[in-house]
């Protein structure tokens, strides 16, 4: 195979003629060098564009040689993404500023567009840019997909104006389809940064909160963003919760405030101020009290109607990352200090402390009389709330468990190991594991009767619909 190098000659700046006899336009010459061997011997150089010269001046070109072959094409453009995303170290905070992989899809789109433009520069570049081996390499690098090998004689050729071209490129089509699929994951005008939290506001409407300080409302059947809400929070939207009657939405932010919204209008009605740091979780208790938890190590109780702060609950020695109502006037909190605490919000008393995790906690969920907790250890513990006894430990994740939801005898968990797992409540067995849906940390998961919805650092929302093709179904 011939080894091809490109010599691109650029002018150092614009040229202004001194008199009318001088030419006003200057061509930028482009050369292609074909070498039988990599050592450059017996090289042949051909100029691709016609020569146009000026009458009184010459350019002193700056040459830059770029070497490439169809098996190592990424060296033409050094900024191409040619490897899978790396696994980052865990941050000290649940809300990391590390976003080095967040532009992966943008880079992938740029690769495709740039190569397509390059294929149109000359007739000789066209077959190189449509080489199936090249696109097979990019499929694996950008989408971790390994397509079947296609024999060269199976490719259809066409002849136009004396030039032989590939009429179709199987792997290029595969790459283009993967790119379109990846764009559909964005479901319309998506968030510009990590998506930290999700909540259902009706059967087919989902709301999301992001590090970009916006809320977005999504219509799930059409995968469209139908509304974007801006300028309410001055920081990242870290948490949200909807009451059981779908009448109010509560959002907490890194601006240390919590906003109460009316539903279904999604209009702000109250702003809760008092925390000294990020509001990390929020819930409604007994339909009249709002409880928030914060990085300032406290829980605070608020009047739902007036927004007045009623009391603070102290006891944790690290960020209170999650809270969950467990019936009556009680809530359970999960902290970075590795403990769970059961509180009475009317008295502010800590009723019980549950210990068993060795590392910090990130999430909790109460379901069917059991409490499920997860965190840095990558394992889920099952607790009896009334006795504080640890009943079971669910093993399987290889990274921090960031979010848990449960419904109808099933638990779903999302982890920094980029996987979603579904567990059977009765046996504790992992019945499903989705390893390839996310390419970075998962921040939030939700369940409904037919769907699992998840979001994370990638700025996109993934929906797994188990009811596809099943109609009718009971609501």
Write the layout of secondary structure elements.
Blueprint: E1 3-10, E2 30-35, E3 44-47, E4 62-68, H1 104-119, H2 125-129, H3 132-143, E5 157-160, E6 163-166, H4 170-185, E7 195-200, E8 205-210, E9 215-219, E10 224-229, E11 237-242, E12 248-253, E13 257-262, E14 267-273, E15 279-285, E16 289-294, E17 299-303, E18 309-313, E19 320-325, E20 330-335, E21 340-344, E22 349-354, E23 361-367, E24 370-375, E25 379-384, E26 390-395, E27 401-407, E28 410-415, E29 420-424, E30 430-434, E31 442-447, E32 451-456, E33 461-465
Antiparallel strand pairs: 1-2, 1-4, 2-3, 5-6, 7-8, 8-9, 9-10, 11-12, 12-13, 13-14, 15-16, 16-17, 17-18, 19-20, 20-21, 21-22, 23-24, 24-25, 25-26, 27-28, 28-29, 29-30, 31-32, 32-33
Helix pairs in contact: 1-4, 3-4
Keywords: Repeat, WD repeat
Domain DDB1- and CUL4-associated factor 12 beta-propeller: 189-233
InterPro entries: Beta-prop_DCAF12 (IPR056151), F-box-like_dom_sf (IPR036047), WD40/YVTN_repeat-like_dom_sf (IPR015943), WD40_PAC1 (IPR020472), WD40_repeat_CS (IPR019775), WD40_repeat_dom_sf (IPR036322), WD40_rpt (IPR001680)
Low-confidence stretches: 1-27, 52-92, 96-107, 151-168
How many domain modules?
A: 3
**Any idea what the shape is?**
globular
The name of the CATH architecture of the largest domain is 7 Propeller
The largest beta-sheet arranges its strands as: 3-2-1-4
Rg (C-alpha, Å): 29 Å
Structure classification: mainly beta
* Assembly category: single chain
Distance between the termini: 62 Å
Largest sheet: 4 strands, antiparallel
How many DSSP helices? 4
Strand content: 35-45%
CATH fold-level label of the largest domain = Methylamine Dehydrogenase, Chain H
In total, the number of strands is 33
Helix share bin: 10-25%
| CATH level 1 class label of the largest domain | Mainly Beta
User: Which superfamily, in CATH terms, is the homologous superfamily of the largest domain?
Assistant: YVTN repeat-like/Quinoprotein amine dehydrogenase
Mean pLDDT: 77
């Amino acid at each position: 195979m011939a080894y091809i190098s490109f010599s691109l000659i650029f002018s150092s700046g614009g040229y202004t003629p001194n008199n009318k006899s001088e030419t006003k336009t200057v061509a930028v010459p482009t050369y292609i060098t074909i070498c039988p061997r990599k050592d450059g011997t017996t090289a042949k150089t051909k100029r691709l564009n016609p020569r146009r010269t000026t009458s009184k001046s010459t350019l002193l070109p700056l040459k830059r040689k770029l070497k490439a072959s169809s098996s190592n094409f990424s060296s033409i453009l050094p900024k191409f993404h040619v490897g899978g995303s790396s696994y980052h170290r865990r941050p000290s905070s649940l809300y990391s500023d590390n976003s080095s992989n967040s532009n992966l899809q943008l880079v992938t789109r740029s690769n495709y567009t740039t190569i397509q433009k390059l294929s149109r520069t000359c007739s000789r570049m066209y077959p190189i840019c449509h080489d199936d081996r090249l696109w097979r390499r990019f499929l694996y690098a950008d989408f971790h997909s390994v397509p079947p090998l296609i024999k060269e004689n199976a490719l259809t050729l066409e002849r136009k104006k004396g030039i032989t071209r590939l009429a179709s490129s199987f792997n290029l089509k595969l790459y283009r389809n993967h790119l379109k699929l990846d764009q559909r994951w964005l479901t319309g005008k998506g968030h510009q940064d990590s998506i930290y939290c999700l909540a259902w506001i009706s059967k087919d409407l989902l709301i999301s909160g992001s590090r970009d300080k916006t809320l977005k409302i999504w219509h799930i059947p059409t995968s469209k963003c139908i509304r974007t809400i801006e300028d309410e929070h001055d920081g990242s939207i870290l948490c949200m919760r909807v009451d059981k009657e779908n009448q109010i939405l509560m959002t907490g932010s890194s601006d240390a405030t919590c906003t109460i919204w009316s539903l279904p209008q999604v209009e702000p009605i109250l702003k809760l101020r008092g925390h000294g740091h990020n509001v990390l979780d929020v819930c409604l208790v007994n339909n009249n009290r709002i409880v928030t938890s914060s990085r300032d190590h406290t829980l605070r109780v608020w009047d739902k109607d007036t927004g007045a702060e009623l009391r603070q609950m102290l006891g944790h020695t690290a960020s209170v990352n999650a809270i969950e109502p467990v019936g009556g006037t009680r809530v359970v909190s999960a902290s970075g200090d590795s403990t769970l605490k059961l509180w009475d919000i009317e008295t502010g008393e800590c009723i019980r402390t549950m210990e068993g995790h060795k590392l910090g906690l990130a999430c909790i969920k109460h379901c069917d009389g059991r409490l499920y907790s997860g965190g840095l250890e990558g394992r889920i513990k099952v607790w009896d709330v009334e006795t504080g006894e640890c009943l079971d430990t669910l093993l399987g994740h290889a990274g921090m468990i960031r979010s848990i939801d449960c419904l109808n005898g099933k638990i779903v968990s999302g982890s920094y190991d980029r996987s979603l797992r579904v567990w059977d409540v009765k046996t504790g067995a992992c019945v499903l594991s989705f390893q390839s849906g996310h390419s970075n940390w998962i921040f939030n998961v939700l369940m409904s009767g037919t769907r699992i919805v998840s979001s994370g650092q990638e700025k996109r929302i993934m929906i797994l619909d188990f009811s596809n093709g099943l109609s009718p179904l009971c609501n």
